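Q: Structure for this?
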Amino acid sequence: MSTRKPAPAIYQIYPRSFQDTTGSGTGDLQGIIRRLDHVAALGVDAIWLSPIYVSPMIDGGYDIVDHKAIDPMFGTDADFDALVARAHGLGLQVYMDQVLNHTSDQSPWFQAAIAGDQAMADHYLWRDPKPDGTPPNNWLSQFGLPGWTWNHLRRQYYFSQFLPQQPSLNLRHPDVQAHIAAQMRGWRDRGVDGFRFDVVTAYLWDESLQDNPPSTPQVQAKVSGETWNTYTYQDHTYDMLPGDGAAYVEKLRAWAGDDAYLFGENTSGNQSIELAMQFTTPGRLDAVYTTDLPENRGSPASVADMIARADSLQRIAGWLSSHDQPRHGRPDASNAVLALQMAFLPGPWIIYQGEEWALPQPDLAKEDVTDPLDLLQWPDGPGREGSRVPMPWDPQAVGYGFTTGTPWLPLAWDRDRVARGQAEMARFYARIIGMRRDMGWDTADVVACMAKGDVLDITLRTQDGSQWRGVFSHGAGEPANLPAGPPAIVADAMDGGTTGWHGAIWNA
Ligand code: GLC
């Protein structure tokens, strides 16, 4: 019998939008504590908290001033300790977000750099302009903005891979590394069990700072972002992952400790699965997640492609929605089929808050949107803010049970639809999360996988040698040649019966 480590089911909490307890209109740590019973009842193994650190919130908390301190808008150190204690009491591990690629431009380091402190400037990437005043090279930001921003005080450009308010950190710098290691140790000492590493594939650039070559059509199709995002026009040879990019995470492992659960976000669409494999060899991260599944709403072809390219699904976290990716909920049977398919895929599974109610992607008016990326690309952006609309705990209440004040985003929910999702889906999620663990699908190996049009047919062998077959029809009606005998489970929650979506699993 193998001793393969269980692959966790991880519930992602976007704290700003989870539960407000003060009437501020913004979620807080006490709110998470209040709602942890709901999370634990789903049977997940862990929660991942999106950033709660001090931040001007220009990029939704992913622009951090101080990684060691909790933003007062979320609560106090005591609230955090109470949250960790409550989570552990319920058997939930706590994973924190680590945004190491950049800081906020409000961070004391960056402000000191602007004020002329060269030692602090070396924590980032500052360069003189070319003689004609233009930036040092052709690098762009992943958000489709120029990669270089001019600062007249230093008379230099600095580099940022996302917003100009998120200057990229020089992660090769020993002082930067020492700082990161210390704050990570600090969170571990406070009981944190693991970390999610933001944009872990973006950390390093080539010191030669050469121009990136243009994309070939094949590369452009794979670089993350819409094809009209200029970022996809380049092959990111020099600004991302040169040489030791994947090996760098061995440092993260050393700083976090062998017993920490570590997973990372791959924003490099090019060679996504192959890169995920490089980042998860022994001594590196436990898992990496890519955008292949969410960008294709878990289509049979995307699952089969992932399985064909991955050495093992144990090292790839499956997911469909997040604070960055529009919610995949629809008012039909597809929710349950997709959830069952995700539960059946071996490896870790990340569930985004509210997905267990089949919440749909709400429509927001442009004047309500605060996310700079959505506004920049309006109306064709990723719809990040829609997926961040706060949780409708009580669909009949004023403020939907999220807040007694004015929510930071309007709660654009259809009350009846939310109520139906709450009545039917959460129970189904709890059931399949339990089955995934009890039947050993999470640690199983894939022995066969076939994607035929809109039908996915997967066979697993679990660590104790039993064989399971899952067949998932994405709107193509009931598949032919199903195994004989009754299935162990059928995706029957919220089944309108008219969509042609079917999913079931057999002990074969
Ligand atoms: C990650 C985060 C996203 C953020 C970006 C830059 O992709 O998930 O929300 O904007 O990193 O930090």
